[in-house]
Amino acid sequence: MNLSIKIGNAKFDNPVTVASGTFGHAEKYFNLGEVKKLGAITPKTVTYRPQEGNPPVRIVETPSGMLNAIGIENPGIDAFIETKLPAFQKTGVPLIISILGYSPKEFADMAKKLNGQKNVKAIELNLSCPNLKQKSLVAQDAQATAEVVRAVKKQTKIPVLAKLAPNVTDIVAIARAAERAGADGISMINTFQAMVIDTKTRKSKLGNFTGGLSGPAIRPVGVKMVYDVAQKVKIPIVAMGGIATANDALEYLIAGATMVAVGTYNFVDPQAPVAVLEGIKKYMRAQKINDIRKLIGSVNK
Amino acid sequence: MTKDQRPTIYMDKIQGKYKVVSNSKLCDRFWRLEFSAPSIEKHTKPGQFVHIRVNDGLEPFFRRPFSVYRAKKNTEVFYEVVGPGTQIMSEYKKGDVIDVIGPVGSAFKMPRKTTKQIVMIAGGIGIAPFLPLTDVLRKKRKDLEMILLYGGRTKGHVYPMKEFKENGVKAHVATDDGSVGIKGRVSKLFNKINCDPKTTQLYTCGPHPMMHAVQDFAKKHNLKGEAACEEVMACALGACLGCAIQTTEGYKTVCYEGPVFDLAQIIF
Hints:
CATH superfamily of chain A: Aldolase class I
Order of helices and strands of chain A: EEEEEEHEHEEEHEHEEEEEHEHEHH
Distance between the termini of chain B: 19 Å
Structural class of chain A: alpha/beta
Distance between the termini of chain A: 26 Å
Largest sheet of chain B: 7 strands, mixed
CATH topology of the largest domain in chain B: Rossmann fold
Radius of gyration of chain A: 18 Å
Number of strands of chain B: 15
Oligomer: heterodimer
Structural class of chain B: alpha/beta
C-alpha cells in the first residue's frame, strides 16, 4: 500500500501531520514512540522576535471546539532554531516549520535562517498576520498573500505552504494568488475569528477579547473550502479544521486534500494523529485502494 | 522564557483507560471519584493532577483537570458539580471505564529539615491536594506540626475534616455564613497560627482572591510558601499554552510548569 505523498520536491511517507500550535514546541510528546509514525510534525508558529503571548484567559470551551487567543507565544526564530529545533530533528520525522512575519521581509529572513536545517521539509507561512496596508490579515488579501509567498520563495528552495484563513469572501481567489506567486502547496484552514461573552459580566471570556474558533465544529466548512480550492488549484493542499477521527481525515482527502493535520483534537486525545493514520490504512484496505493518490480528490458527484 | 527542567512526558505511559471503583457524594456539592490506575498510584506526587475525559463524545469538548486527592490503593479525585462535565462525572457507576491522562504537573516541594510547622490554607475544592501532602508528611516527618486553615461558602461546601484529623492535622474552619467554624473569610483564621520565617512553610490552594491574601500575609511575615493554581485547561501537557498565568518570570503554564508555583512568584 502506498501512502507517500509529495509537496513540491519534499516526500512524506504518509499524509498525516499535526496542525501548528497543537503539538507544542518542546519535547513533550516526543517519547510517544508512535509520533515517529507520522508523515510530518508541524511545531507551533515561530515569529522573528520572541513573543510573550496574550494575557489570560487564553482559551474557552465551545460546542465541539474551542476559542483560543494564545497570541503566538514563542521564543523567536533564533532561539527556536537553537533550543527547540534540535529535539524535533532528533525524532527523524520530517518537519513542517510554521512561521509568521509582520512584513514580507521578516517572512523571508526567517525562511533564510531555515535553509540547510536538517529534516525541515517544508515551510508553512502563517498568513493570519496583520496586513499593515489594509488593516486586515495578509490572508484576506490576494496581493499581500502573493507578495509574502514571492518574498519567501526568493530566499529558499524548501517547499512553501501558504496557510489561509477562512474569514474571506472567496478563499479560492487567495489560494490561486498563492499558487501564481509560486507556493508549493496550500494549508487550510486556520481558525475562524469568533467571540464568547460571559453574560454575567457582559465581558468577553478571552483576555484578548476575540479569538479563533477551531475543533470539530468547523470541520464541514473546512471540507467545503478544501473542495472548492482543489477544483481550481493544481498544487497540493494540507487540510486541517476539526479532524478528530480517520473518517474526518478521509472526508478532506476525498474532497481533494493531499495531506491532513490533526489540530485541536490533540488536546482531547494526544494519540489521535496515530489513530487517524491507522484508520486511513484500514479504510484503504477495506476499499481495496492500494495508493493514497487514488483517494485524493475522488469525491463522487 | 525559562528553560524546561521538567522531565519528558511519556505519552504512551501517561494516558490510560481505567475502571471506576466508586463514585459517591461526600457532602452537599462535593463528590469523590475512585478509580483503579496502578501507574497513577505508583507515580503521583502530592500536588500533581489527572486530566479526565468525562465521556467519549465531543460534549463537553475539553478534558477536566483534578488534583489527585489520594493515590494509595486506588486513585481518588475530589470534585464539585459545577457544570456539564462534573454533572456527567457524578453519574459514573462502578465498572465504568474512563480515559485519564496523568499524573501531570509539578508537585509540592517537601518541607526542609529545619521546617517545624506547615500551614495549609485552602478554600473550597482547593482542599484536594493537601490530603496526599499530609499522607506523605505524616510518615516522613513525625515531628512536623501540620495546620489547616479551611474556608468555604457554607456548611455544605466544607469537606468533613476526618481524614485530615487522622493524619494528625490541626484544622480551623471558616464559612461565609458561619454555619461551621467562625464566620468570615479564611484570612480571619490567620491569627490562629504562630509563624516563624525560619520554621514555617505555607501551602495554599483555592480561589485567587484567597491566595492573594495568603501571598500578602506571607510577604508581611516574611514566610515562604507554595501555591497550587487552577486555570481553564485544554491539553494539560504544556502544548497549547492556553492555561498561562502571569508570574514575576513572565507567563507560565499551570499544567506543565505548575500547578504548584512559588507563592511569591504569582501575579494575582
